[in-house]
Amino acid sequence: MIESLYFTWAQGFMSGLNLTFVANLHKFHDLGSTPMAEQKSQLREYCDEHPLSPYSSAVINIYKTFPIRPDNSN
Questions:
Q1: What is the pLDDT averaged over residues 29-41?
Q2: How far apart are CA 47 and CA 55, in angstroms?
């Protein structure tokens, strides 16, 4: 249950990062390129390896791994 709440927050946080990325660079990190189960696993692994780091560090770390795509909405 707690992991689901944290993961929901992570998805929202990364979406917010993407809004800034699109506004400034007209590109976005493709959050859907990695299945959610794998994202959760990567977050768990990061947290296990960095127990004293804030959860946001794990989220930023995974965010950087998503492929960057051009924003073609214009």
A1: 96
A2: 7
Q: Could you state, in order of their start, the residue ranges of all structural domains in the chain? A: 2-70
Residue 41 one-letter amino acid: S
pTM of full prediction above 0.85? yes
Alpha-carbon distance of 5 to 29, in angstroms, equals: 22
Rounded Cα distance, 52 and 8, in Å:
21
CA distance 24 to 59: 21
Report the C-alpha gap between 18 and 23 in whole angstroms.
8
Q: 57, 67, 46, 66: which is closest to 10 by C-alpha?
A: 57
Residue with tokens 């979406």: 15
pLDDT at 72: 85
CA gap 47, 32 in Å, rounded: 21
- In the DSSP assignment, the letter for residue 68 is E
